[in-house]
Q: What sequence folds into this?
């Protein structure tokens, strides 16, 4: 059996905010790997550095020190403009509050990553419609976000995240704004979509109900990785 392929690898990552006496170190020498074809979930209390870490892995925030390789590219050594282009092509984002644009249709929202890459709206919309079909919203493409339920809005956000076929998907509390039933439906759909070879998802969550959808769980506390284990070896009782 061949070894798993690393999608993202962080070594000795540190990050601080503020300066002088007000300087606070948020990440303390983080080492973590995520692999292709897996869903890695980051679990830990509020303020432990989870969102800071995924922001660095996604290239939207720069570490103070350490090395970061994402999809084989050394992000720590790249210029900001190159990171921006890399992120637009290779990374998809799913957020807690959906972050849909309220004044445009669902199909236009789903097309946004392609528009950012410079594709015309006319060429982007067929891709957006196909992505919405994949998440079961083919009949809602012309609606605006406020005409949808919370679960439907999150499915639009998933369609938007996957429309440009990214290899790395970053999720920040994707079920926090949903009730248990809708959260489960969204995660069922997301897990099915993630089975495409070569994809990797890193999911920050407080929602213990969705841990079952992961392949591996990394626990954080006080800016450090406490453990990183396959879900089958995770002590659910200890972390309740």
A:
């Amino acid at each position: 059996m061949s070894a798993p392929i690393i999608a993202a690898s962080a070594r000795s990552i540190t990050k601080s905010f503020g300066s002088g006496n007000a300087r606070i170190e948020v990440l303390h020498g983080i080492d973590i790997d995520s692999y292709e074809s897996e869903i890695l979930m980051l679990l830990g209390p509020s303020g432990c550095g989870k969102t800071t870490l995924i922001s660095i892995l996604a290239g939207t925030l720069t570490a103070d020190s350490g090395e970061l390789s994402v999809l084989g590219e050394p992000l720590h050594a790249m210029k900001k403009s190159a990171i921006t282009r890399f992120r637009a092509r290779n990374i998809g984002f799913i957020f807690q509050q959906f972050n849909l644009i309220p004044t445009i249709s669902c199909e236009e929202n789903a097309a946004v990553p392609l528009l950012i890459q410079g594709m015309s709206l006319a060429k982007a919309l067929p891709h957006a419609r196909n992505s919405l079909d994949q998440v079961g919203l083919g009949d809602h493409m012309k609606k605006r976000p406020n005409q949808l339920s919370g679960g439907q809005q999150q499915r639009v956000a998933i369609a938007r995240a996957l429309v440009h076929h990214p290899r790395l998907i970053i999720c920040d509390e994707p079920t926090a704004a949903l009730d248990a039933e809708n959260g489960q439906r969204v995660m069922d759909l997301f897990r099915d979509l993630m089975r495409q070879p070569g994809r990797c998802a890193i999911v920050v969550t407080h929602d213990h109900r969705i841990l079952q959808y992961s392949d591996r769980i990394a626990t954080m506390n006080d800016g450090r990785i406490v453990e990183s284990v396959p879900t089958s070896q995770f002590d659910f009782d200890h972390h309740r």
Notes: The chain is about 30% helix and 30% strand.
